[in-house]
Design brief:
Blueprint lengths: L1 H29 L6 H39 L15 H9 L21 H7 L5 E2 L4 E6 L2 E6 L20 H15 L2 H4 L3 H11 L1 E3 L2 E4 L16 H17 L1 H17 L16 E6 L8 E6 L10 H4 L10 H7 L19 E2 L6
Length: 362
């Protein structure tokens, strides 16, 4: 009961304020001049306030009606509440009539009634019998077969509520990662270099052999039995090779360069031909890497040991990555300050000069 009484009291205040506002507008309309731009702007402002008060009053009426129905339904009786703004029943048409020039007969009689027919804008142009006349910046008067009609927009505003939630949190992890990355660049990544360094490097040094002028090393497996878990990925390798063949058909120069590299590697013993039964195990797919600015090797053949089929293990996942033996970049740059003249060189296909032991080739 307390809630509905508060709503009714608020509605009473709004009604009183609305009545005073309507009387103010009525006084203004007595001296309204449709040719005066100042009067037109003032009228537009009045219409905005009028719409706002009408919406507010209608909202309060609905709240009173719903609350009243809820209370009387609980008591088993009926009640009728005022729903609507009676004071606005014919006020908006009066405002429009004051906007219309004198001695101008409109098709609309400005009487309340149901809408019987709607005409789309694509058909409205066919009903026009003359040029439109501009009444103000928002309204046009159109001569049609039905009579003179108003077209345009009256100023309208509607209050609404918007909720915005904003959460701000400071994440320092990314900043720390960048700081650590800079430190590892200057001082070297000691954690990575020390990972499994003693065991893997010690075993690797014992197993290195030199045959016919080339070093031979076995693959460094993570565990003794993990090699048996390396399943076949022949289907994946075959699909990639078919895709490579299609690129060869589209680019003849690529095929010639690729074929030349493979023949050269076969001649140097970097790769070798194998029997058909070797495809039962893990098969490394390969692809091209083009470097036109390279002076020695413009087309490189890269073997993909990360390739795998489904959820099976790849060769990379079965091998120890080992420590990083590459020199720190800062150390290399500082060496150029030790002497007046510095020399630098590059070994072509450095990693390809090391061959894999026969036990790990198939």
């Amino acid at each position: 009961m307390e809630t509905i009484e508060k709503i009714r009291a608020k509605r009473k205040i709004v009604r009183s304020a609305s009545t005073k506002f309507v009387n103010k507008v009525k006084s203004f309309l007595k001296t309204f001049d449709s040719q005066n731009e100042t009067h037109q702007e003032q009228l537009s402002e009045y219409l905005l306030n009028l719409d706002a008060k009408q919406i507010e009053l209608q909202t309060l009426n609905k709240e009173v009606e719903v609350s009243s129905l809820s209370i009387h339904k609980h008591r088993g009786s009926r009640s009728s509440e005022i729903s609507g703004a009676e004071i606005y029943s014919d006020f908006t048409p009066k405002l429009l009539r004051n906007l219309i020039p004198a001695r101008c007969q409109m098709a609309d009689t400005f009487q309340n009634g149901p809408i019987k027919i709607l005409i789309g804008a694509n058909f409205l142009v066919h009903t026009m019998t003359g040029e439109p006349v501009k009444i103000n910046k928002n309204l046009l008067m159109l001569p049609t077969i039905f009579g003179r009609t108003l077209m345009g927009q009256l100023p309208y505003s509607q209050k609404g509520e918007m909720q915005l939630f904003f959460t701000s949190c400071e994440v320092v992890e990314s900043d720390l990662e960048r700081l650590w990355g800079l430190e590892s660049f200057l001082l070297g990544d000691e954690l990575t270099r020390g990972y499994a360094a003693e065991n893997s490097l010690s075993d690797f040094g014992k197993e290195v052999k030199k045959k016919k002028g080339r070093y031979e090393v076995p693959l460094q497996w993570k565990t003794n039995g993990i090699k048996g878990n390396l399943s076949s990925n022949f289907d994946v390798a075959e699909k990639r090779f078919i895709s490579l063949e299609k690129r060869f058909n589209r680019d003849e120069l690529l095929f010639e360069r690729y074929n030349s590299v493979m023949k050269e590697q076969l001649k140097q013993g970097i790769i070798e031909k194998c029997a058909e039964n070797c495809f039962a195990g893990y098969v490394m797919s390969h692809r091209e890497v083009i470097r036109e600015n390279s002076s020695s090797t413009k087309t490189r053949v890269v073997y993909d040991v990360s390739s795998k089929q489904g959820n099976n293990l790849s060769l990379n996942e079965c091998l120890i990555s080992g420590e990083n033996l590459n020199p720190i970049l800062i150390d290399v740059i500082l060496k150029f300050r030790e002497h007046k003249i510095g020399f630098c060189g590059d070994i072509a296909r450095a990693f390809l000069q090391i061959q894999v032991s026969e036990i790990d080739r198939n």
